[in-house]
Automatic annotation (TrEMBL):
The keyword Transcription regulation does not apply. Gene3D superfamilies: 2.40.50.100, P-loop containing nucleotide triphosphate hydrolases. PROSITE patterns: ABC_TRANSPORTER_1, ABC_TRANSPORTER_2. Residues 7-238 form the ABC transporter domain. This is ABC-type quaternary amine transporter. It comes from the Bacteria. Its EC number is 7.6.2.9. GO terms for molecular function: ABC-type quaternary ammonium compound transporting activity; ATP binding; ATP hydrolysis activity.
Length: 368
């Protein structure tokens, strides 16, 4: 058993011609850990995964698996299982033959292949489909087979590249449950899961690494990243938080702060490094914004739009400019009822609860 981390990326960069798809990435994933690589389209998530798998050769940096430098090894010598978005099953082979493919390529004895194929098909609940052709399976079933195929070689590392994104919403929910069960049954397997779906990342990952423009923006335990995001980008991407400009009135020594938003004073949790700044942003999730009839206290605002989304109403609002040096501040809110509120165009009062994360006001654009 090795004490070295399952995966280490040391300054790994990937260029395609003059385009940098991955800037020098330093990232360590421990054995048995599930890490989600989360970020918008084109942020470099898949490229990072391909560098681990060996499907792209880094332009610089080294990739280590359990302490061993594998940068120059081809994919099939890395002992990694990979599942991609579009299943990529061999259509002319049965389910069992697909699952046994990697073992046959390694010239494993036939009896062992049979036993192992049965075992992993059972693990993903697909034993009854062993003799079917992939064409006779639904999308979810094909993805289960693809996962079984990746697991058949008993990989120390399982890489998942948007494995659920081709499935419909209900099936995705079900597969998240399946992946959680798998994770529990394979406690030593290290999983890196690429997704742009924050709820998937929160459900499945121990840690989340947030990527943007080929760079790692932030990495940390899933719960911490959600509750106390250190950057505006993480707050906005992971939980769709409103980023409201506030004045920092006072910071106490225990991670708390008093802030002013317009005429309202509230308590906040210091989440990023403030470095003595007087201006910062408060990350306020739409579900936490209170919207009330005018004259009930709270911050004066105008209701710009309301959409009924079944469980909730999504409201677009604008805070009164005067309180924010003339700057227009838009706010999104999600409320269960709009009873007592004026029609669109009317004036309302907003409340923001105590305890929201306070983040230094320094997006990467402003730093450069
Ligand atoms: N083979 C390639 N040749 C040239 N450019 C590429 C190649 N592969 C990726 N890129 C570019 O590198 C950047 C990062 O791509 P990557 O696929 O890693 O992003 P991603 O975060 O996984 O996005 P998505 O969620 O859309 O898959 C993108 O701008 C992409 O266009």
């Amino acid at each position: 058993m090795s004490a070295a981390p399952a995966i280490q990326l040391r300054g790994v960069g990937v260029d395609y011609g003059r385009k940098t798809a991955l800037a020098d990435l330093d990232l360590t994933v421990e054995r048995g850990e599930t890490l989600a690589l989360l970020g918008p389209s084109g942020s470099g998530k898949s490229t990072a995964l391909k560098a681990v798998a060996g499907f792209v050769r880094p332009s610089r940096g080294r990739v280590l698996l359990e302490g061993r430098d594998v940068t120059d090894l081809p994919p099939h010598q890395r002992g990694i299982g990979v599942v991609v978005q579009n299943y990529a099953l061999f259509p002319h082979m049965s389910v069992a033959a697909n699952v046994g493919f990697g073992l046959r390529a390694r010239r494993a004895p036939r009896a062992e292949i049979r036993e192992r194929v049965a075992e992993v098909l059972d693990l993903v609940g697909m034993s009854a489909f062993a003799d079917r052709s992939p064409r006779q399976l639904s999308g979810g079933q094909q993805q289960r087979v693809a996962i079984a195929r990746a697991l058949a070689i008993r990989p120390a590392v399982l890489l998942l590249d948007e494995p659920l994104s081709a499935l419909d919403a209900a099936l995705r929910e079900e597969m998240v449950g399946e992946l959680l069960r798998l994770r529990a049954e394979l406690p030593d397997t290290t999983i890196v899961h690429v997704t742009h779906d924050q709820s998937e990342a929160l459900a499945l990952a121990h840690r989340i690494a947030v990527m943007r423009d080929a760079r790692l923006v932030d990495v940390g335990p899933a719960r911490e990243m959600y509750r106390t995001p250190r950057t505006e980008f993480t707050a906005a991407f992971l939980g769709a938080a409103n980023l409201l400009p506030v004045e920092v009135v006072e910071v106490d020594g225990e991670g708390g702060a008093t802030v002013r938003l317009g005429d309202a004073i509230m308590r906040a949790r210091v989440s990023g490094e403030l470095d003595g700044r007087r201006r910062a942003v408060l990350g306020v999730r739409p579900q936490r914004v209170g919207v009330h009839a005018e004259g009930t206290g709270g911050l004066p605002a105008r209701l710009l739009a309301a959409q009924w989304r079944g469980e909730v109403f999504r409201l677009d609002l604008r805070l009164d400019g005067a309180a924010h040096s003339g700057q227009e501040v838009r706010v999104r809110a999600e409320v269960a009822s709009i009873e007592g509120l004026p029609p669109v165009g009317g004036r309302v009062a907003l409340t923001v609860p105590d305890g929201c994360p306070l983040i230094a006001d320094a997006s990467p654009e402003e730093e450069t």
